[in-house]
Design brief:
By secondary structure, the chain is mainly α. Helix content is 65%, strand content 10%. A 3-stranded antiparallel sheet has the order 2-1-3, sandwiched between helices.
Length: 263
Amino acid sequence: MNKNIVFRISFIISLIIHLILGILIYLLMDKYKSSENVEEKKVKLAFKRGGDSAKEDSKFKENTSLPKSPPQQPAQPKQQTIKQQAQEPNQHKAQPKNTTNIDKQIDLSKLQVYSQNDVQDSNIPPQNQTSQSNITQMLQNLPQDTREEIIDLYGDELGDYGEAERDFIINNLREIGRITQYHLNLRGYPPDAGYLGQQGKNAVEFYLYPNGDISDLKIILDSKSMILDKNTIKTIQIAYKDYPHPTTKTKIKIYVKYYLFYY
């Protein structure tokens, strides 16, 4: 009895297990088939879309291959000729207008030729022209070395001075230089410069007043020797008392030269 009961129970359990396994296998098979169906549908859809795109591409190619020379091209030369014919009369009409304008604007009989000197002279006021001519006449009456010294030191600046200043400079600069040289000789050649063999030329500038005083004494061209430049300043501080007096404040510029003579 006990063996029969155990056999029955084991048989029932095995049936239940087989049923469960069969159900599981069935469910798995359904899922697998459904997934295959989905993939087949996707593939079919893809092929369908590919076919549609191929059709569209073929249509596009057909459309793109269509452009050919339009049948209306033979009519273009007519349009061009029409446009050219329309433009040419306008050009022929405009030409006489331009020629008349040129004839009106240009009259060779009224042309005047100016030289560069005439233009420069026209820009100079008449008063300055007369003053410059007077300066050149006064400078021509001076010795060549004095004339060159004034032109070199003052240049165009001389034309900006008043008449009294210009007259005093032109008539007295040579005398001021002579007086300065006289006092240089009295002082003698600077011993240190003579020992070192220094020589050269410097230029000074100062204002000379009607009472004989001077101001703003300075070197405007150095001699490359500090000894000679200092000697020039000291000499003028002594010699100015003998300078002629101007009627107005006047800027004086003179050269002072140093030479060594060997015997």
